[in-house]
Amino acid sequence: MTANARQFMDRVLAAVRETDDHGLLTDRRADGLTGISGLKTVGVLQRLARLFADDPSACYVEIGVFQGLTLISTALEAPALPCFGIDNFATLDPDGVNLSVVNERLARFGTANARLLNMDFEEALGGLDGHLSGRRVGLYFVDGPHDYRSQMVCLLLAKRHLHDHAVIVVDDANYPAVRHATRDFLLGHAGFKLAFEAYSPAHPANLSRDDLLRWEAGWLNGVHVLVTDPEGLLPDMLPPVDDDRTLYFNEWLVHRQQMAELAPEAVALARALCLDDEPEAADRRADLMRRFDQMKTRFSGRFPDRNTKSAGLPEARFNALPEG
Question: Is the pLDDT of residue 324 over 90?
């Protein structure tokens, strides 16, 4: 078992090193396959998929399909490997076109081994057994919502579906919540190790044009590569995080507020007011009121503060052993 585990680890690390040196394995951008992932992120998925290509018990699963770049790129490199992309296209799709873009590309590139699960990621992960036909997830790409809870749910709910030798690639590791979630998952699950991490100096939206071109060819907004390691072959390695937990404590302070869902608009307005930018403040105030008008019926009946949403929950409920 140790020899097999060592061989698996060597192959994973070699695939990551080759990607870090050379980027994409196969470049299909000229054929119209585009997206917003770093090219090295795509390249490592291509190489890692090949590790599972001949394993009849394995499959590939990704959370967050967008316009199909990673799903199709991965599926084309391992045509015998079933590949599942999970997305309900609720975000990053203001024009409502991404579902049709993905379906068109799946057909045009002939990815018969790729299947789109058009559903919420929590629902999909909760019922994943019904889609995998007995296979286990050998390669798992997490690129969905990047809040702390969503990251942890993606890791925790997938755990029981993972192959004995599994690789998890977590995108957008620049975000503090993503790094915290990876770190906490590793601290609570000794059978997994961080094999590789890479970060860029800022979000792509905040990079200069020259820097953006450089990091688009690389790991873009950061990446984590985790591996199953029940034998402890790799030493412990954890993502760096800020010890200041103020933002996480503030989540509780915000969530209990009557109008908690307005927090993004409220913070944007607060920034404009603090900087004494009246034109910006006027725009952000309009955004806030527009959002309030959309959601005000949801706020009615709530307390001004300390909303627990516990009304109607059982006063006491016992679990019980089955009879016999």
Answer: no
